[in-house]
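Attaching the record inline, Q. Sequence:
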Amino acid sequence: MRRRASISFYLNNQGIRAEPFETIEEFVASWPKSGLVLMHDEANAVASLAREICGRQGWLPIVAYSSSPEPCDIVEAVLEGAVGFAVWPGCGETLTRVLQGACNRSNALAAGGSRQVLAAARIEKLSRREREILAGMVEGLSNRLIGEHLGISPRTVELHRANLLAKIGAKHSAEAIRVAIEASLPAFKPAIIKIALAA
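Structure, as predicted:
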């Protein structure tokens, strides 16, 4: 509450209208038509809100913040869908600059298709093998067929499927396939392994 109050007080004094919300649910209930979301970076918060944004027509850029972020925290927030990262408590001028930069970037992203940008950020979290399996899912292949093409067991495919769903925050295979299509994931092309045999 103190964090939200301090940020709102500072931004409102700078002529930037800031409206605090206590939870994602409260924010979703009064969904704004435009603006920018400044969100405290805590477990899965950015990913949760990015999923909500993906399911709606409007594009709202997310800027994450925390008091003393590690570099890996900033990278993770960006991969989850944030277009900027700020430190707060911190320098107010820096915060304002980060928000302005995020607005500029978000306009460019919106022009290029916000859903595709968010989907691509989620796909970036997957390993090469997980992307291959997701591409197979898009083609409608079963675990057995994907495994045959990739030279792995159906059980291994099943484990990779579960991992990739968790990584991109998809509740089921259909949602993962939608994300893959929005991100323009390359078509399923199993690697051909060539083995040179000695004469």
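The longest helix spans residues 92-112. The chain has a mean pLDDT of 79.

More tomorrow.
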